[in-house]
Amino acid sequence: MKKALIIINPSSGTEESMKYKEMAEDLLTKNDYQFEVLLTEKENDAKRYAEDACAEEIDLLVVMGGDGTINEVINALVTRENRPVLHVVPLGTVNNFARAVDIPLRPQAALQLIENGVMKNVDVGKVNQQYFVNLVNVGAIAEATYHVTTEQKSKLGSLAYLLEGLKKFREKDVFRVAIETGGDKVELEAMLVLVAVTDTFASWKNLIKEAEIDDGYFHVFVIKQLTNFEGVAMLTKLMSGSLKEQEQVEYFKVKELTITTEETKIANVDGDEGTATPLHLSILPKHLRVLTQN
Ligand SMILES: Nc1ncnc2c1ncn2[C@@H]1O[C@H](COP(=O)(O)OP(=O)(O)OP(=O)(O)O)[C@@H](O)[C@H]1O
Protein backbone atom coordinates (compact mmCIF):
# COMPACT_ATOMS: atom_id res chain seq x y z
CA MET A 1 0.00 0.00 0.00
CA LYS A 2 1.15 3.56 -0.71
CA LYS A 3 1.75 5.86 2.26
CA ALA A 4 0.36 9.39 2.65
CA LEU A 5 0.31 12.09 5.28
CA ILE A 6 -2.27 14.89 5.53
CA ILE A 7 -1.04 18.09 7.19
CA ILE A 8 -3.82 20.57 8.04
CA ASN A 9 -3.47 24.12 9.34
CA PRO A 10 -6.92 24.56 10.94
CA SER A 11 -6.37 28.32 11.24
CA SER A 12 -5.74 28.96 7.53
CA GLY A 13 -8.03 31.28 5.60
CA THR A 14 -11.66 30.89 6.52
CA GLU A 15 -11.01 27.98 8.88
CA GLU A 16 -13.08 25.47 6.93
CA SER A 17 -10.41 22.81 6.76
CA MET A 18 -12.24 20.22 8.86
CA LYS A 19 -14.90 20.08 6.17
CA TYR A 20 -12.30 18.89 3.67
CA LYS A 21 -10.48 16.49 5.98
CA GLU A 22 -13.08 13.75 5.52
CA MET A 23 -13.12 14.21 1.76
CA ALA A 24 -9.34 13.76 1.67
CA GLU A 25 -9.56 10.67 3.87
CA ASP A 26 -12.19 9.09 1.62
CA LEU A 27 -10.18 9.79 -1.54
CA LEU A 28 -6.97 8.42 -0.06
CA THR A 29 -8.70 5.26 1.12
CA LYS A 30 -10.32 4.77 -2.28
CA ASN A 31 -6.93 5.16 -3.97
CA ASP A 32 -5.14 2.58 -1.79
CA TYR A 33 -3.26 4.90 0.52
CA GLN A 34 -2.51 4.19 4.13
CA PHE A 35 -2.41 7.57 5.86
CA GLU A 36 -2.14 9.68 8.97
CA VAL A 37 -3.60 13.15 9.67
CA LEU A 38 -1.70 15.81 11.62
CA LEU A 39 -3.03 19.25 12.59
CA THR A 40 -0.66 22.16 13.09
CA GLU A 41 -0.92 24.23 16.25
CA LYS A 42 1.81 26.78 15.74
CA GLU A 43 4.62 28.01 13.53
CA ASN A 44 7.02 25.31 12.26
CA ASP A 45 4.72 22.37 13.06
CA ALA A 46 4.09 21.84 9.33
CA LYS A 47 7.85 21.91 8.71
CA ARG A 48 8.52 19.35 11.43
CA TYR A 49 5.74 17.03 10.23
CA ALA A 50 7.03 17.23 6.64
CA GLU A 51 10.58 16.39 7.75
CA ASP A 52 9.30 13.32 9.58
CA ALA A 53 7.28 12.32 6.50
CA CYS A 54 10.49 12.32 4.42
CA ALA A 55 12.26 10.16 6.99
CA GLU A 56 9.37 7.69 6.83
CA GLU A 57 9.45 7.58 3.03
CA ILE A 58 5.89 8.75 2.54
CA ASP A 59 4.68 8.70 -1.10
CA LEU A 60 2.22 11.59 -0.97
CA LEU A 61 2.08 14.64 1.26
CA VAL A 62 -1.30 16.39 1.29
CA VAL A 63 -1.03 19.94 2.66
CA MET A 64 -4.16 21.91 3.50
CA GLY A 65 -3.38 25.52 4.30
CA GLY A 66 -2.24 28.87 2.99
CA ASP A 67 1.07 29.93 1.46
CA GLY A 68 2.69 30.17 4.91
CA THR A 69 2.04 26.50 5.62
CA ILE A 70 3.12 25.46 2.12
CA ASN A 71 6.31 27.46 2.47
CA GLU A 72 7.20 25.62 5.69
CA VAL A 73 6.60 22.27 3.99
CA ILE A 74 8.67 23.17 0.94
CA ASN A 75 11.56 24.25 3.17
CA ALA A 76 11.39 20.84 4.85
CA LEU A 77 11.24 18.85 1.60
CA VAL A 78 13.87 20.46 -0.59
CA THR A 79 16.97 19.23 1.20
CA ARG A 80 15.75 15.62 1.65
CA GLU A 81 16.67 12.68 -0.53
CA ASN A 82 13.27 10.97 -0.32
CA ARG A 83 10.86 13.73 -1.24
CA PRO A 84 7.18 12.75 -1.38
CA VAL A 85 4.90 14.12 -4.09
CA LEU A 86 3.33 17.34 -2.80
CA HIS A 87 -0.42 17.82 -3.04
CA VAL A 88 -1.69 21.25 -2.06
CA VAL A 89 -5.27 22.02 -1.08
CA PRO A 90 -5.36 25.84 -1.00
CA LEU A 91 -7.08 27.22 2.09
CA GLY A 92 -5.31 30.58 2.45
CA THR A 93 -6.44 34.05 1.51
CA VAL A 94 -3.94 34.60 -1.32
CA ASN A 95 -2.84 31.13 -2.49
CA ASN A 96 -0.03 32.25 -4.79
CA PHE A 97 1.49 28.78 -5.01
CA ALA A 98 -1.76 27.12 -6.10
CA ARG A 99 -2.34 29.83 -8.71
CA ALA A 100 1.21 29.55 -10.03
CA VAL A 101 1.07 25.76 -10.38
CA ASP A 102 -2.50 25.63 -11.74
CA ILE A 103 -3.98 23.86 -8.77
CA PRO A 104 -7.76 24.48 -8.61
CA LEU A 105 -8.56 27.15 -6.05
CA ARG A 106 -11.75 25.43 -4.91
CA PRO A 107 -10.63 23.00 -2.20
CA GLN A 108 -13.12 20.34 -3.35
CA ALA A 109 -11.66 20.46 -6.86
CA ALA A 110 -8.08 20.50 -5.58
CA LEU A 111 -8.81 17.38 -3.51
CA GLN A 112 -9.81 15.49 -6.65
CA LEU A 113 -6.18 15.69 -7.82
CA ILE A 114 -5.52 12.74 -5.49
CA GLU A 115 -7.46 10.74 -8.06
CA ASN A 116 -6.91 12.50 -11.37
CA GLY A 117 -3.93 14.83 -10.87
CA VAL A 118 -0.78 14.82 -12.98
CA MET A 119 2.72 15.25 -11.66
CA LYS A 120 4.63 18.41 -12.48
CA ASN A 121 8.28 19.08 -11.64
CA VAL A 122 8.64 22.66 -10.44
CA ASP A 123 11.65 24.91 -9.82
CA VAL A 124 12.64 26.00 -6.33
CA GLY A 125 14.66 29.11 -5.52
CA LYS A 126 17.28 29.25 -2.80
CA VAL A 127 17.97 32.58 -1.10
CA ASN A 128 20.73 32.48 1.51
CA GLN A 129 19.69 29.55 3.71
CA GLN A 130 15.99 29.62 2.75
CA TYR A 131 13.96 28.18 -0.11
CA PHE A 132 11.06 29.71 -2.04
CA VAL A 133 8.78 28.82 -4.93
CA ASN A 134 7.33 32.15 -5.85
CA LEU A 135 8.93 35.49 -5.19
CA VAL A 136 11.59 37.35 -3.25
CA ASN A 137 11.34 41.11 -3.08
CA VAL A 138 13.41 43.89 -1.57
CA GLY A 139 12.06 47.43 -1.09
CA ALA A 140 8.59 48.95 -1.14
CA ILE A 141 6.44 45.81 -1.27
CA ALA A 142 8.67 43.96 1.19
CA GLU A 143 8.26 46.75 3.71
CA ALA A 144 4.55 47.12 2.98
CA THR A 145 3.99 43.52 3.99
CA TYR A 146 4.85 44.29 7.59
CA HIS A 147 2.29 47.07 7.77
CA VAL A 148 -0.63 44.95 6.58
CA THR A 149 -2.79 43.83 9.48
CA THR A 150 -4.52 40.45 9.60
CA GLU A 151 -7.83 42.29 9.45
CA GLN A 152 -6.86 44.14 6.24
CA LYS A 153 -5.60 40.88 4.79
CA SER A 154 -8.80 38.96 5.41
CA LYS A 155 -10.93 41.86 4.14
CA LEU A 156 -8.87 42.83 1.11
CA GLY A 157 -6.66 39.81 0.39
CA SER A 158 -3.66 40.65 -1.77
CA LEU A 159 -5.05 44.12 -2.51
CA ALA A 160 -4.01 45.09 1.02
CA TYR A 161 -0.35 44.55 0.09
CA LEU A 162 -0.70 46.50 -3.10
CA LEU A 163 -2.27 49.47 -1.30
CA GLU A 164 0.45 49.54 1.34
CA GLY A 165 3.06 49.09 -1.40
CA LEU A 166 1.71 52.07 -3.30
CA LYS A 167 1.94 54.19 -0.15
CA LYS A 168 5.61 53.26 0.11
CA PHE A 169 6.15 54.12 -3.56
CA ARG A 170 4.77 57.55 -2.89
CA GLU A 171 7.35 57.99 -0.11
CA LYS A 172 10.00 57.45 -2.83
CA ASP A 173 12.13 55.12 -0.80
CA VAL A 174 15.09 54.62 -3.15
CA PHE A 175 18.19 52.58 -2.34
CA ARG A 176 21.41 51.63 -4.11
CA VAL A 177 21.62 48.04 -5.21
CA ALA A 178 24.27 45.93 -6.95
CA ILE A 179 23.23 42.90 -9.00
CA GLU A 180 26.02 40.42 -9.73
CA THR A 181 25.58 37.49 -12.01
CA GLY A 182 28.19 35.29 -13.73
CA GLY A 183 31.02 37.80 -13.28
CA ASP A 184 28.97 40.85 -14.39
CA LYS A 185 28.02 43.55 -11.92
CA VAL A 186 25.40 46.28 -12.41
CA GLU A 187 24.80 49.07 -9.90
CA LEU A 188 21.44 50.82 -9.85
CA GLU A 189 19.19 53.09 -7.79
CA ALA A 190 16.06 51.06 -7.05
CA MET A 191 12.70 51.32 -5.34
CA LEU A 192 11.96 47.64 -5.64
CA VAL A 193 13.76 44.48 -6.66
CA LEU A 194 11.64 41.44 -7.58
CA VAL A 195 13.07 37.96 -8.11
CA ALA A 196 10.37 35.67 -9.51
CA VAL A 197 10.30 31.92 -10.03
CA THR A 198 6.69 31.91 -11.26
CA ASP A 199 4.34 34.14 -13.24
CA THR A 200 2.17 34.89 -10.20
CA PHE A 201 2.50 38.00 -8.08
CA ALA A 202 0.22 39.11 -5.22
CA SER A 203 -2.42 36.57 -6.28
CA TRP A 204 -2.48 37.64 -9.96
CA LYS A 205 -1.44 35.07 -12.52
CA ASN A 206 0.39 36.04 -15.73
CA LEU A 207 1.78 39.25 -14.25
CA ILE A 208 5.29 38.02 -14.99
CA LYS A 209 4.72 36.48 -18.38
CA GLU A 210 8.44 35.69 -18.87
CA ALA A 211 8.37 33.20 -16.00
CA GLU A 212 7.44 29.53 -16.18
CA ILE A 213 7.52 27.51 -12.99
CA ASP A 214 9.73 24.88 -14.66
CA ASP A 215 12.00 26.97 -16.92
CA GLY A 216 15.03 26.77 -14.60
CA TYR A 217 15.49 30.56 -14.37
CA PHE A 218 15.00 33.50 -12.05
CA HIS A 219 13.28 36.52 -13.58
CA VAL A 220 14.72 39.62 -11.93
CA PHE A 221 13.13 43.06 -12.19
CA VAL A 222 14.81 46.15 -10.76
CA ILE A 223 12.34 49.02 -10.61
CA LYS A 224 14.14 52.35 -10.57
CA GLN A 225 12.94 55.65 -9.17
CA LEU A 226 9.52 56.53 -10.58
CA THR A 227 7.52 59.72 -10.82
CA ASN A 228 3.84 59.37 -9.85
CA PHE A 229 2.94 59.26 -13.51
CA GLU A 230 5.52 56.56 -14.22
CA GLY A 231 4.24 54.64 -11.19
CA VAL A 232 0.76 54.45 -12.68
CA ALA A 233 2.17 53.51 -16.10
CA MET A 234 4.23 50.78 -14.44
CA LEU A 235 1.20 49.32 -12.69
CA THR A 236 -0.59 49.17 -16.03
CA LYS A 237 2.40 47.38 -17.56
CA LEU A 238 2.49 45.03 -14.60
CA MET A 239 -1.19 44.18 -14.99
CA SER A 240 -0.65 43.36 -18.66
CA GLY A 241 2.37 41.18 -17.91
CA SER A 242 4.82 43.45 -19.72
CA LEU A 243 6.69 44.94 -16.78
CA LYS A 244 10.09 44.51 -18.37
CA GLU A 245 9.16 46.75 -21.32
CA GLN A 246 8.89 49.74 -18.99
CA GLU A 247 11.83 52.12 -19.38
CA GLN A 248 12.34 52.35 -15.63
CA VAL A 249 12.72 48.60 -15.28
CA GLU A 250 15.90 46.54 -15.68
CA TYR A 251 15.28 42.86 -16.39
CA PHE A 252 17.63 39.88 -15.98
CA LYS A 253 16.99 36.21 -16.69
CA VAL A 254 19.57 34.23 -14.68
CA LYS A 255 20.20 30.97 -12.85
CA GLU A 256 22.06 32.61 -9.97
CA LEU A 257 22.77 36.09 -8.67
CA THR A 258 23.88 38.15 -5.70
CA ILE A 259 21.98 41.25 -4.59
CA THR A 260 23.84 43.71 -2.39
CA THR A 261 22.38 46.93 -1.00
CA GLU A 262 24.20 49.88 0.52
CA GLU A 263 22.53 49.42 3.88
CA THR A 264 21.17 46.08 5.03
CA LYS A 265 17.63 45.55 3.75
CA ILE A 266 15.19 42.85 4.74
CA ALA A 267 13.93 40.69 1.90
CA ASN A 268 10.42 39.37 1.82
CA VAL A 269 10.50 35.68 0.86
CA ASP A 270 7.23 34.20 -0.45
CA GLY A 271 5.16 36.66 1.55
CA ASP A 272 7.06 36.53 4.83
CA GLU A 273 9.96 38.49 6.23
CA GLY A 274 12.77 36.20 5.20
CA THR A 275 16.36 37.20 5.13
CA ALA A 276 18.67 40.23 4.98
CA THR A 277 20.88 41.52 2.16
CA PRO A 278 23.30 40.53 0.71
CA LEU A 279 21.15 37.90 -0.96
CA HIS A 280 22.76 34.94 -2.68
CA LEU A 281 20.25 33.28 -4.97
CA SER A 282 20.40 30.07 -6.97
CA ILE A 283 17.74 28.04 -8.73
CA LEU A 284 17.11 24.32 -8.22
CA PRO A 285 15.53 23.32 -11.54
CA LYS A 286 12.49 21.00 -11.45
CA HIS A 287 13.28 20.05 -7.89
CA LEU A 288 9.81 19.35 -6.46
CA ARG A 289 7.09 17.04 -7.71
CA VAL A 290 3.65 18.59 -7.33
CA LEU A 291 0.19 17.29 -8.22
CA THR A 292 -1.68 19.55 -10.60
CA GLN A 293 -4.44 19.35 -13.18
CA ASN A 294 -4.13 18.02 -16.75
N1 LIG B 1 -3.44 25.90 14.79
C1 LIG B 1 -2.89 27.09 14.47
N2 LIG B 1 -3.39 28.24 14.98
C2 LIG B 1 -2.87 29.45 14.65
N3 LIG B 1 -1.82 29.62 13.82
C3 LIG B 1 -1.26 28.51 13.27
C4 LIG B 1 -1.77 27.20 13.57
N4 LIG B 1 -1.02 26.29 12.89
C5 LIG B 1 -0.09 27.01 12.19
N5 LIG B 1 -0.22 28.33 12.42
C6 LIG B 1 0.54 29.44 11.82
O1 LIG B 1 -0.24 30.00 10.74
C7 LIG B 1 0.68 30.53 9.77
C8 LIG B 1 -0.01 31.01 8.51
O2 LIG B 1 -0.84 30.08 7.96
P1 LIG B 1 -1.22 30.03 6.42
O3 LIG B 1 -0.33 30.86 5.58
O4 LIG B 1 -1.35 28.62 6.06
O5 LIG B 1 -2.67 30.62 6.40
P2 LIG B 1 -3.20 32.07 6.10
O6 LIG B 1 -2.34 33.07 6.82
O7 LIG B 1 -4.66 32.08 6.35
O8 LIG B 1 -2.97 32.13 4.53
P3 LIG B 1 -2.42 33.28 3.66
O9 LIG B 1 -0.94 33.29 3.89
O10 LIG B 1 -2.80 32.95 2.25
O11 LIG B 1 -3.12 34.51 4.15
C9 LIG B 1 1.67 29.38 9.68
O12 LIG B 1 2.88 29.78 9.08
C10 LIG B 1 1.86 29.03 11.18
O13 LIG B 1 2.87 29.83 11.74
UniProtKB/TrEMBL annotation:
A cellular component term, taken from the record's GO annotations: plasma membrane
Any one GO molecular-function label of the UniProt entry: ATP binding
Lineage: superkingdom: Bacteria
DAGKc domain residues: 1-131
Keywords, in A-Z order: ATP-binding, Kinase, Lipid biosynthesis, Lipid metabolism, Magnesium, Metal-binding, Nucleotide-binding, Phospholipid biosynthesis, Phospholipid metabolism, Transferase
Pfam families reported for this sequence: DAGK_cat (PF00781), YegS_C (PF19279)
GO biological process: phospholipid biosynthetic process
Family indicated by similarity: Belongs to the diacylglycerol/lipid kinase family.
Cross-referenced PANTHER family: LIPID KINASE YEGS, SPHINGOSINE KINASE
Name used for this protein in its record: Lipid kinase, YegS/Rv2252/BmrU family
Organism encoding this protein: Gracilibacillus ureilyticus
